[in-house]
Recover the amino acids of this structure.
């Protein structure tokens, strides 16, 4: 496997990981807002 192809695979994995991380942060942020509203 060439180095260039290997780098592309790593970049794809990082991209997917960042995407999942951002989505989970947004989800957690929304959940926290709903939770604090419920407490009040």
């Amino acid at each position: 496997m060439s180095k260039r192809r290997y780098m592309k695979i790593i970049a794809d994995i990082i991209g997917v990981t960042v995407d999942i991380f951002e989505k989970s942060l947004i989800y957690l942020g929304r959940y926290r807002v709903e939770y604090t509203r419920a407490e009040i």
User: Anything to note?
Assistant: The first helix runs from residue 3 to 39. Helices lie at 3-39. Residues 1-39 form one domain. The radius of gyration is 17 Å.
